[in-house]
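Usage

Read records sequentially. Each one opens with the input sequence:
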Amino acid sequence: MNPTVFAYLRSRPGLATGLAMIAVLLIVVAVPKVFAVHPPEAIDVANALLAPSGDHWFGTDHVGRDVFARVVHGARTTLGIVSGSLLLSAIFGGLAGSLAGYARGWTDISSGQMIEVILSFPPIFLGVMITGILGSNMGYLVLALSVVYLPLFFRAARSTTMVEGAKPYVEAAQALGAGHDRVLLRHLLPNVVPSIATQYIILFPLALQVQAALGFLGLGVQPPTADWGASLQESKDYLLIAPWMALFPGLALIVASLAVILVGRGLQDTDDQ
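and closes with the structure output:
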């Protein structure tokens, strides 16, 4: 590692810890079979509800599946859904917000009104409504989360575009004959991206909670696919006799959220200095 980078991270232990945790999560997502010996969907009723042991580190669930394997493989499902959903929200919300902030007038007013309608619904309620109408599968879950968080990216992009659009460099580009598409794509959007990235980091833990909540309600990923929210839903009837079924997926959600929060706070501290 570059000594300068090492010294920088050493002076910000929270950021370094968050980046290390995210690196571990990415490795788990990329190669889950390296960490989990047992298949995540292998049913063994004879070994159901076994407590954590050397053979089953996190115990087994109500049908004998290895909880550790389901947590490890569930990382790809859960984090993939949240990451993909927020990426879609960032792309479409960012583009729409930038266009509205630059065009102003009726474009800004009409799009803003539609955004206000979406924001009038609580996130979990909107997610339940969309998945309840369309159905419970991974694609519809991604769509639901994308719609839930699109307005927040829209607002971030719109406000940044309006601030940047009033600066002299935009007027200079227009004076030199740059068209609206060039001004928006070449001059404004590059300055909007940092605010979109910041919003992504802020919203990730919140989207992770909503995704897990939908899975707990049975509106997320359906069995037998490994997913942290679905694992919590399956554990609700066994909390007293097999608490490990809920404990470890819940801890996984906390660790993933904490990792992103630490990175976000570390980057914020850097900007403040």
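Summary fields computed downstream for this record:
- The domain at 15-31+65-272 is CATH 1.10.3720.10 (MetI-like fold).
- The chain is about 75% helix and 0% strand.
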